[in-house]
Design goal:
The protein is an all-alpha fold. It has 18 helices and no strands. Helix 1 packs across helix 7, helix 7 runs antiparallel to helix 8 and helix 11 runs parallel beside helix 17. The longest helix is centred in the middle third of the chain and has 33 residues.
Length: 393
């Protein structure tokens, strides 16, 4: 596939000047933030959609389930597309699907069309991890890669934070349909920025894979699915599924559990997830900029999860004053966030030559699986009157 003219660069990304590497990090992180924004394209509008279409809560929840099922299945497949055609065309296609999804949702006359729009948004979300990491790994030098992963992760969290602000803010003034059109306009703006940086973002997948395969004795080229025999691939998948499951539990029922366990006021409960996400973002930056040495990645990941586990158990079983719960949520988020850049470095280490998109597609589909399973499983614990079980889980 033809594309913008670029100079040949080594896989480490050292062929780009530092200023251009910074541009790549900024643009890819911005696009990643938009993908997280579209995770919440409907949830902040649920009260308005419920009234407009006379929907039940289960019907509203099914819209999110469809999003993540489509995203998870398509993400596992999208890596093959990225390896075949290159990351940049797939990135533009994914962003374009977001625009289409926003338009479909904005004009939806029925619940069925809302379901279609949610599925299109999930399809657009599917390719972002294979795309983002394929570009970052190819264009960013090894010395800056941990920091690049940190910024990438934080921008994803900012996308979650911005979605309710924009959608609820616009809908309160102009209605939910205009709010969805505004989300589509935001996606158009990101497409323009991505196109502006196309010369730095383009990675010729066919060339890179052929060069890497020759260096590896054709081991990957010989079999399209040969990478699936790697134990590290499936260990990484289980890791992502488990951590996403845990985060999904914190986001969905963590505040309600803490409120029951520690008799928290309603106003404080509403802020707990925000406090957790801010702590996680700070921890991610710390992990990328202070603990970004790939040689210590395994230790950093293990330590961050162990410490986060301790704070989770404290929330579930340690009697605390009201003011302590927000502190524990912040510390738990910070601890979990510290390991995020190191986690991505570990996955990169496990990627064989020529299979970057495929590996990231399979591994990061674990995130969608975990997030999709968490609400139902943890909801059963809450229905069983076992709020402390959230923190054990």
């Amino acid at each position: 596939m033809s594309g913008p003219t670029v100079t040949a660069e080594p896989a480490s990304g050292s062929g780009l000047e530092p200023a251009m590497q910074t541009r790549v990090i900024a643009v890819i992180s911005l696009a990643h933030g938009l993908s997280h924004f579209f995770h919440l394209i409907l949830a902040p509008l649920f009260p308005l959609l419920k009234e407009a279409f006379s929907l039940s809560y289960s019907e509203l929840g099914l819209l999110m389930t469809v999003f993540f099922i489509v995203s998870g299945v398509a993400q596992a497949l999208s890596g093959f597309v990225v390896d075949r055609f290159g990351a940049f065309p797939v990135l533009v296609g994914s962003l374009s699907l977001f625009v289409l999804a926003a338009l479909v949702l904005a004009v939806a006359p029925s619940y069925g069309v809302l379901m279609l729009g949610s599925a299109i948004a999930g399809l657009g979300n599917a390719a972002f991890h294979p795309v983002d990491y394929s570009i970052l790994n190819a264009r960013i030098g090894a010395a800056r890669l941990g920091r690049a992963y940190a910024v990438h992760g934080v921008c994803g969290s900012l996308g979650w934070a911005c979605a309710p602000l924009l959608l609820v803010g616009v809908s309160s003034v102009a209605g939910w349909r205009v709010a969805l059109l505004a989300a589509g306009g935001l996606a158009v703006l990101i497409i323009a920025i991505v196109w502006w940086a196309r010369h730095q973002l383009w990675v010729r997948a066919e060339r890179d894979r052929q060069v890497a395969a020759r260096a590896a004795g054709q081991s990957i080229e010989a079999s399209t699915f040969g990478f699936m025999k790697l134990p590290g691939l499936w260990l990484s998948f289980v890791y992502f599924c488990g951590t996403a499951f845990a985060i999904g539990g914190v986001q969905s029922f963590g505040p309600a559990s803490a409120a029951q366990l520690h008799d928290l006021p309603v106003a404080q409960v509403a802020l707990l997830v925000t406090i957790y996400m801010v702590g996680s973002a700070c921890g991610t930056l710390f992990g990328g900029y202070v603990l970004g040495n790939p040689a210590y990645a395994q230790r950093v990941v293990s330590a961050s999860l162990a410490v986060a586990l301790c704070f989770a158990i404290m929330i579930g079983y340690l009697p605390t004053p009201v003011w302590v719960s927000p502190v524990l949520f912040a510390l738990m988020g910070f601890s979990a966030g510290v390991g995020t850049p190191a986690r991505d470095l570990l996955v990169k280490r496990a990627v064989p030559p020529g299979a970057s998109g495929r590996v990231y597609g399979i591994v990061y589909s674990g995130l969608d699986v975990g997030v999709a399973l968490a609400p139902a499983m943890f909801g059963l614990m809450m229905d069983a009157h076992w709020p402390a079980g959230i923190w054990v889980g």
